[in-house]
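Hi R.,

Here's the chain you asked about this morning:
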Amino acid sequence: MAEEGQFFRPVKDFCQRKVVTCGPDDPLVDVVRIMREKNISSVIVCENKLPSGMMTDRDLRNKVVASGADPSALVVREIMNSPLSVIGEDDLLYEALYRMSRRKIHRLAVVDGKGRLSGIITDSDIIRLQSHSPQQLVLDIENATDIDEVKAVYERIQGLVLHLSGSGTNTRDMVRMIAHLNDQILLRLIALMRADRFADLPDRFAFVVLGSEGRGEQTLLTDQDNAIVYGDELNANQIDRIEEFSKVLVDSLITIGIPPCPGGIMAKNKEWRRSIGKWHEQLDRWLQTPTPKHVLSCGTFVDIRTIYGDPSFERDLKAHLYQHVQRDKLFLMRMVESTLRFAPPLGWFGKVKGESGGEHSGMLEIKKAGIFAISEGVKALAIQAGKLEGSTHQRLEALVKDKVVNQKMADNIAENFGFLVLMRLRGQVEAVREGRTPDNYIPLARLNMMELGRLQIALKGVEKFQEFIKAHFSLHLLR
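And here is the predicted structure, written out as tokens:
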């Protein structure tokens, strides 16, 4: 396997299984003696058979030696770090690296599906893999000191995607990696801006991302969809500072290479920067009058995910949405109706039809052909179930747990969605390598018979899913 592919293997393939543990009320000197004997720098603290904290040699230096405390009078609980930072053994190695970098720590406890300790992983365990890795990009983002350095790292992200696209890396994992790295880019830009010009911003605001970025489903064709929410209680001066911050941030994103949203869905524009009360009013306007334009705007907005700031606004707005759709089903019906306008382009005997004229003749617009229908259809089901968190795949998993869809249907939808996204990403990679601007068009003539057959199956699966949601939302009642 290529070096880069290692980062998409599960943590359980790399973690240390032999872990030294202790109890929270064990005498500190006894645990320190064990650490010295075994030549280790940390122990996991377990309580009721579950990991609850960690004690490291740094804790001993900073909390005992530096303070002059008497170690014989202390128990582990008094100096351990809790709650414990953990990762699931089936999570990807890249996720472990991301969490360590984000939290500025050097080790994570590894747990099984029931939360029981199964190992430990440290940054030193995987340093041998870092010569060409997503982790190195994360570190370089965090160490960037100005916008030019951030831009240089962002360009390397595109290069990493190009490199990984030929390594056999799972598409879902790659898309998730792109989302993680883009989040880090945003957070670093915000940190630099706050340190330079915006240290006085109020606490009661949030910068949120929307649409595919909110779902964490970006590929190489990534424009901006973002907004600002702030507290109703802020004064005019505070609101003016947030406005200035929004404009500088969006312009900075454009500078590093993330293009503006063609539809203007950006925090620098006044209609996408409101107080929580005004966002409630806007959400009500969209929901109560579900015109095609309102459905599109609201559909983009409800993928809201907080990148920076107060996360309570996101929870508040989602709760407001859930309450409305429980009282009034019309918006969801109109939302599903709009997705049905994007029928998969299948002709006689299921043959995939490309465009018949113009610059894209013989090509398939893969987003309109199937990706949009699945992501929006699953979103409608998720809104109804109150399960909007995460990606389309994660929403499907939540819908299975709530018995909205069965496992077989969810697996089929996920498989078809994954294949369509793969085709989109592969087409974009080919465009970049050929010096073209990446878009959503797939040249059908470049697909072999097996790929065409798989594409037909995926688009037929989209048709079947559309039939399901049409019946589920009783669209026959619409006039």
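One quick note: Residues 336-477 form a domain with the Four Helix Bundle (Hemerythrin (Met), subunit A) fold (CATH 1.20.120).

Cheers,
M.
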